[in-house]
Design goal:
101 residues; mainly alpha
Length: 101
């Protein structure tokens, strides 16, 4: 009986440690994504093509992460990143626009 209890306690302890490592890796992934999105937003802003909702999505992402909804936070952060990249592409596309006759 004691052996079973000891093994159960060890299993729970190992599971808790593994869960903590996974959470830390997930948090780092989110933090890296937000940092990249902020950098891309800054570049889009420098080009003068920041889109209206990009920063709103990033703010909502941070609020969702604080509320514990990691999936929603990741989705919104990815959306903000994509919009910032598309805004930069729009700036490049419009840089040398010529009239078409």
């Amino acid at each position: 009986m004691k052996k079973t209890l000891l093994m159960t306690a060890v299993a729970f302890a190992l599971a808790a440690c593994a869960g903590g490592e996974q959470k830390a890796a997930a948090d780092k992934e989110y933090t890296d994504l937000v940092a990249k999105a902020k950098a891309e937003i800054k570049l889009a802003d420098q080009a003068g093509y920041t889109w209206r909702d990009t920063e709103k999505f990033l703010k909502e992402s941070e609020e969702a992460m604080k509320a514990g909804d990691r999936d929603k936070a990741m989705k919104l952060a990815k959306k903000a990143l994509k919009q910032a990249q598309l805004a930069q592409q729009q700036a490049k596309d419009n840089a040398n626009v010529k009239p078409v006759f």
